[in-house]
Amino acid sequence: MEFLEFLRDVLQQPALLIGIVSLVGLVALKKPFYKIMTGTLKPILGYLMLAAGAGFIVENLDPLGKMIQEGFHITGVVPNNEAIVSVAQQVLGVETMSILVVGLVVNLLIARFTKFKYVFLTGHHSFFMACLLSAVLGTAGMKGMELILSGGFLLGAWSAISPAIGQGYTNRVTEHDGIAMGHFGSLAYYISAWVGSKVGDAKDSTENIEIPEKWGFLRDTTVSTAITMTFFYLLAAIAAGPTYVGTLSGGMSPFLFAIMAGLKFAVGVTVVYSGVRMILGDLIPAFEGIATRVIPNAVPAVDCAVFFTYAPTAVVIGFVASFIGGIVGMLLLGVAGSVLIIPGLVPHFFCGATAGIFGNATGGRRGAAIGAFVNGLLISFTPALLLPVLGSLGFQNTTFGDFDFGVLGIVIGSLANALGETGIFIILGLFLVVLLVPNFIQTKGKVINNPDEE
């Protein structure tokens, strides 16, 4: 049991997963010891740097969300993956851990023996999805080994299928850098890219925005992010009032607190960028070892923050546009008499920014803004529809925030409600067909939806 707990802890650490992948790849390439050591440590340190920056961002988004709720008198459900998972672990800990382990093994087997060569490396998102599946399948009446094996297969299958769905768009974002999207907000990013292709021109990129020389300092991502976010914090602080902000600031002047929080947010983004560069610098060469020796043609599916460096200006535009979409979605839910989904700053920053990047890749500035706005609407409506299928977890004041969680939860839960366990077996069968059929037909490349990998 202690070993299983240790294994669970390792599998919940994306930094260690990435390090293990680099280690295996470098050993497969027969690199000398010093290169194996540095090539293993750098992706681990890079991910820890990314996580530290993301944690700093989340820490400083929390008071902004509270000030917005207070200043604009909004109450409702706030989607937050970490919050709902922490609640769920009190009743679903063993099931979640077991599904996680089975899911990771299934993902590797799929990558080895099918044309879905995508290896999902974002361990914490695998953990979140394992938790969602344990809740939805448990509510549908499954339990024990049946629940674990069904949930593990669904997790492993979706970990391989979801990167493949939009790999064409991902290649446009990265200019064929050999990575895939390993994040369970992926369907919304692909929708954003599709919307971008319909409303704009990729040549009109956010990264080509011409700025007069006197405004040239805005080209510095850290500076432009600091200015943008400080404005948001000050606006929220003014709306909330100095008395309320004083309860958050720990004695600091309310408006100075808002300014410092905005500046700290920008520092967090910069740390994320630095971590991403360190990860990619060593992970991609090491992954060639896995691609050539262990899982031929394997493609690493990595966290959404890894894509931020490809279009830093789109990150800011995407966040703002997604948050506006979240506000509009909340108002529409209010008019419809549904539960209010308050825009969560964390999902709107990370998912909105990524949607902006994907929208920009196909539709430039208009694609970034409109695509991310659509993402904001999507991650407002799906959490509201997801609540009823979560069973007892649906009565909490938080829920899963990213789009794929909502889609899978709603589809599985709805079929289970209509057909019982038969509905779940239908989904398992469909996933199996999707995974196996490409093995028997001619495709453009050896990797499904990624013809560049030959």
UniProtKB/TrEMBL annotation:
Pfam families xrefs: EIIC-GAT
Record keywords, A-Z: Cell membrane, Membrane, Phosphotransferase system, Sugar transport, Transferase, Transmembrane, Transmembrane helix, Transport
InterPro entries according to UniProt: Ascorbate-PTS_EIIC, PTS_sugar-sp_permease
Gene Ontology BP, a term: phosphoenolpyruvate-dependent sugar phosphotransferase system
Subcellular location: Cell membrane
Topology with respect to the bilayer: Multi-pass membrane protein
Top-level taxonomic group: Bacteria
One MF annotation (Gene Ontology) recorded for this entry: transferase activity
This protein's GO CC annotations: plasma membrane
Transmembrane segments: 12-29, 41-58, 91-111, 118-141, 147-166, 223-245, 257-280, 301-324, 330-358, 370-390, 410-437
UniProt keyword annotation of Membrane present: yes
Family the entry assigns: Belongs to the UlaA family.
Its job: The phosphoenolpyruvate-dependent sugar phosphotransferase system (sugar PTS), a major carbohydrate active transport system, catalyzes the phosphorylation of incoming sugar substrates concomitantly with their translocation across the cell membrane. The enzyme II UlaABC PTS system is involved in ascorbate transport.
Subunit structure: Homodimer.
PANTHER family: ASCORBATE-SPECIFIC PTS SYSTEM EIIC COMPONENT
Protein name: Ascorbate-specific PTS system EIIC component
